[in-house]
């Protein structure tokens, strides 16, 4: 199910996986974000937070951060 994204909310969020790893979720699709055909899942928390920050920064700057 897609959710409406508010302009004030980040596009990419960090969520904990059931088995303890961390993933980056694209709030436009509610699916894991992916780059180069690889889902951004099973990450360490700090790595996920750093990557999500960079993705959101790219999004705010008007560029597609996953290319």
Question: Strand tally, please?
Answer: 5
Largest sheet, strands/sense/barrel: 3 strands, antiparallel
Alpha-beta content class: alpha+beta
How many helices in DSSP terms? 1
Mean pLDDT: 88
Radius of gyration: 11 Å
Q: What level of helicity do the residues show?
A: 10-25%
Helix/strand order, N-terminal first? EEEEEH
Which sequence of strands runs across the widest sheet? 1-2-3
Structure description:
This protein has one helix at residues 45-60; strands at 12-16, 22-26, 31-32, 34-35, 38-39. It is α+β, with helices and mostly antiparallel strands and 67 residues long. The protein has one domain (13-60). The protein has a three-stranded antiparallel beta sheet, covered by helices on one side. The chain has a two-stranded antiparallel sheet with strand order 4-5. The longest helix has 16 residues, at 45-60.
């Amino acid at each position: 199910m897609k959710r409406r994204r508010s302009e004030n909310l980040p596009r990419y969020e960090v969520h904990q996986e059931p088995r303890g790893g961390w993933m980056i979720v694209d709030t436009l699709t509610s699916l894991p974000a992916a780059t180069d055909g690889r889902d951004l899942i099973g990450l360490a928390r700090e790595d996920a937070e750093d990557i999500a920050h960079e993705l959101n920064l790219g999004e705010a700057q008007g560029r597609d951060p996953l290319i």
